[in-house]
């Protein structure tokens, strides 16, 4: 191994150890959660989208509290492309606020409200199933195979998909539909990236074989 390769490996090990420190990990979690407070406030003040708003705010508040208490990672990716993907997927609802339009409902309110409630139920079920093993970037904590994760690999993203759908139906315009669909696509890509990072763990590789659906139980 060349000296440059050795230095690169040592640098990765160093930063991996730094990011694995509990106080650093929780500090990052707190900082990462703060924008969701502003997002919830903005949506309440300007969009007033009924149950889709309540669903989104509730999930954000649960995320903030539980992120602070999360378990430090055993291994975290240092790939800058993965961090960039995690940033855009996570903060997409915040990044698109300036281009969202007021829109109009395209289905009765009971339908979009029902989808919003389903989004909230799935997201909370998934979040509490995951326990303290949550992060924005691909990272290995304890492998979770129970609860919502018994039926699908990425149930939190399923909740996000339903939330985007509820918002698109409540405030439809072609622009809104497009940017919300792009946000969902980012989570689809993130699902594959996380699996590629975690499959190095034999336990997670076995989980991938046992649970085939990624987002919809028994379907896909």
Question: Main traits of this protein?
Answer:
disordered N terminus, single chain, 220 residues, two-stranded antiparallel sheet, 68% helix, globular, Four Helix Bundle (Hemerythrin (Met), subunit A), mainly alpha
Could you describe the largest sheet, including whether it forms a barrel? Answer: 2 strands, antiparallel
Q: Which segments are poorly predicted (pLDDT under 50) over 5 or more consecutive residues?
A: 3-8
Tally the beta strands: 2
Write down the secondary-structure element order: HHHEHHEHHH
Name the helicity range: 55-70%
Total domain modules: 1
* Structural class determined from secondary elements: mainly alpha
Q: How far from one another are the termini?
A: 43 Å
Number of helices: 8
Level-1 CATH class name: Mainly Alpha
Spatial shape: globular
Biggest sheet, spatial arrangement of strands: 1-2
Report the C-alpha radius of gyration, rounded.
Answer: 18 Å
Question: Would you give an account of this structure?
Answer:
With 220 residues, the chain is mainly alpha-helical. The protein has a single domain, classed as Four Helix Bundle (Hemerythrin (Met), subunit A), CATH 1.20.120. 68% of the residues lie in helices and 2% in strands. It has eight helices and two strands. It has helices at 3-19, 22-47, 51-68, 80-95, 109-130, 155-170, 174-198, 202-210; strands at 75-76, 139-140. The chain has a two-stranded antiparallel sheet with strand order 1-2. Helix 3 packs antiparallel against helix 6 and helix 4 packs antiparallel against helix 7 (174-198).
């Amino acid at each position: 191994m060349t000296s440059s390769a050795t230095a690169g490996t040592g640098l990765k090990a160093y930063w991996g150890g730094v990011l694995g420190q509990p106080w650093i990990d929780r500090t990052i979690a707190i900082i990462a959660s703060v924008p969701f407070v502003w997002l919830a406030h903005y949506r309440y003040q300007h969009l007033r989208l009924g149950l889709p708003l309540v669903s989104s705010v509730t999930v954000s508040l649960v995320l903030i509290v539980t992120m602070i208490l999360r378990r430090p990672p055993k291994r975290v990716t240092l790939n800058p492309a993965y961090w960039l993907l995690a940033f855009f997927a996570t903060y997409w609802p915040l990044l698109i606020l300036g281009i969202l339009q007021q829109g109009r409902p395209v289905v009765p309110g009971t339908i979009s409200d029902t989808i919003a409630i389903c989004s909230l139920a799935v997201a909370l079920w998934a979040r509490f199933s995951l326990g303290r093993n949550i992060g924005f970037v691909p990272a290995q904590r304890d492998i979770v195979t129970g609860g919502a994760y018994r039926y699908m690999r990425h149930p939190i993203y399923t909740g996000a998909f339903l939330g985007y759908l509820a918002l698109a139906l409540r405030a439809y315009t072609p622009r809104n539909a497009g940017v919300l669909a792009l946000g969902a696509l980012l989570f689809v890509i993130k699902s594959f990236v996380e699996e590629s990072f975690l499959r190095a763990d034999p336990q997670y590789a076995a989980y991938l074989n046992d649970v085939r659906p990624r987002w919809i139980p028994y379907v896909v």
